[in-house]
Amino acid sequence: MKLRTFSAACSFALLPMLATAGDNKIDIGQLYTGEFRVEHSDLANMTLAEKRLAGMRMFTNPFLKSQGFGDGDDNPPSPSATGNHEGERGTLQGNGSFQRINGLDAQTCLECHSVISRRKVPFTTGIGGVGGINNTVLGAGGATLVDLKSTDKKTNVNGRVINPPFIFGAGGIELLANEMTIALQKQLAAAPAGATTALFAKGVSFGSITKDAFGEVVVDADGNAVGAEGTFRLNPRNADGSHNEDFLVVAPFGRKGDAKSTRDFDIGALSFHFGMRVDEGLDHDNDGVVNEVLDGELSVLSVFVGTAQTPFAKAPDAEAVRGRHLINEIGCTGCHIPSMETNTKHLGFRAPDVANDPTANVHTYVNLARAPMSFEKNEIGGVTVELFADLKRHYMGANLEEFNGDGMFTTMRLWGVADTAPYLHDGRAFTIKDAIQTHGLDPASEAFTAVSNFNNLSEDDQNALLAFLDTLRSPNGTFPRLLNHVANEVALEQGVTAN
Ligand code: HEC
Ligand code: HEC
Known about the structure:
Blueprint: H1 3-19, H2 48-60, E1 115-117, E2 124-125, E3 137-140, E4 159-162, H3 170-190, E5 195-201, E6 204-211, H4 262-274, H5 295-306, E7 312-313, H6 318-329, E8 340-341, E9 346-350, E10 362-367, E11 376-377, E12 383-385, E13 393-395, E14 408-410, H7 432-438, H8 448-456, H9 459-469, E15 472-473, H10 478-498
Antiparallel strand pairs: 1-2, 3-4, 5-6, 7-15, 8-12, 9-10, 11-12, 13-14
Helix pairs in contact: 1-10, 2-5, 2-10, 4-5, 6-9
């Protein structure tokens, strides 16, 4: 691929934008298509702005059937789809596009990640935001029969219902998770045989592990490490006895805390929502299109997501300051930890991910203290991430359990919460107060005590707490900032070329 040629073309294409930066009318739909597709080997020659722009195209581009949107014929199931459910999804009334349940359910990422704030009417939109109720994803579950073509018209739907969160601040979250994983893996390796070792990462407890006399981690009947908690995978060995690379890996993304990186998440999103597969040279979904998403394109998409803007806090008034103290006093901050520190400013984007070694295969480093992420630098050479979460999974009670009885969710980050209604994993809570009360209804919920404390506060104090949460705001969407940033970088590059 002629990247330098492209770069020059891109610079010229972007020039008019300098003049029209205000209206953001730039058509990136044709960039990075045809001969300008992004291969892994191209990454080394692209500037960060070029990667982000290419990633923004991936995020906002309506995928076409000719590019691989959709799955192959489901009847009979695709022979090459053995072992995974992709390639076997029918479409609504056989129309070749949407089924809604278990995907295909959209044509672009932006369709579901586009609400910046719902605080005022009408709501404001922008790239990377949350989704409303009609963007809620319906995932088919174990006992599901969704046969929309069946003649007896029997449909039995049972599965996951998940509302889209925003992508803002994702880079800071990924870096925190990487460092926490590294800490847990070190403790796992160093834990002595014949003893119990407590697990901690950034001050968050992940329970403990016990090693037997032979140095093997002691497991329960389900194969999970006795005493360990809080990560998605707690089993040191896979069913076949092999080492499980995901054991004690902090996976912050997804409502259930099951995706370790934006890249990891994006692979699933592309496949689930659009039937766009990252399987270079192959056609796993049997739709006659190969190279639907190139590895380099997945990489730039994750760079785009991981360099989105960061949520911010408005200066609190006296009432909000009181509320800030209250969330601490009543125990909310046990899980919604106000801020965590990273040891470095530099997030490494990797391809492919090695679950238990976040330092492997890095293709791009990004300084998170730079715009547009603009995390505040700390005193140890890293950045402060004001997330209001612990990147740990907790049991939320029977009322929040999903269809399969699974009530474990990752602590929702409260940054931006003033703008991101509806709340909770399935969007069932329309107000913040409703969200608070709903996740502590069941005495078995880990949030029960803190939420009971909230319920026992005077109305004045409850309002102060809500006033504090109302200071936590979403950024204005990553699109205008990226355009300005790209424009500056292009101007800079041209200055350099001119010399
Ligand atoms: C049909 C709606 C929909 C579309 C289209 C969609 N998403 Fe999402 N997105 C969601 C939902 C729902 C979640 C929560 C998923 C979960 O909990 O597992 C989510 C979560 C995410 C997250 C994790 C955020 C976090 O903090 O946990 C990222 C990153 C993300 N989406 C990126 C993408 C990208 C990239 C695309 C396009 C390839 C995309 N999404 C397309 C609905 C959508
Ligand atoms: C045991 C850990 C824990 C405690 C304690 C806790 N929370 Fe949560 N919180 C969670 C989890 C986990 C979720 C996500 C639930 C879901 O996805 O359905 C959540 C979700 C929320 C949400 C919804 C956010 C959104 O965007 O959907 C709000 C608001 C919230 N918590 C506020 C509070 C307040 C205020 C307190 C104190 C009264 C509190 N929480 C105590 C773990 C906790």
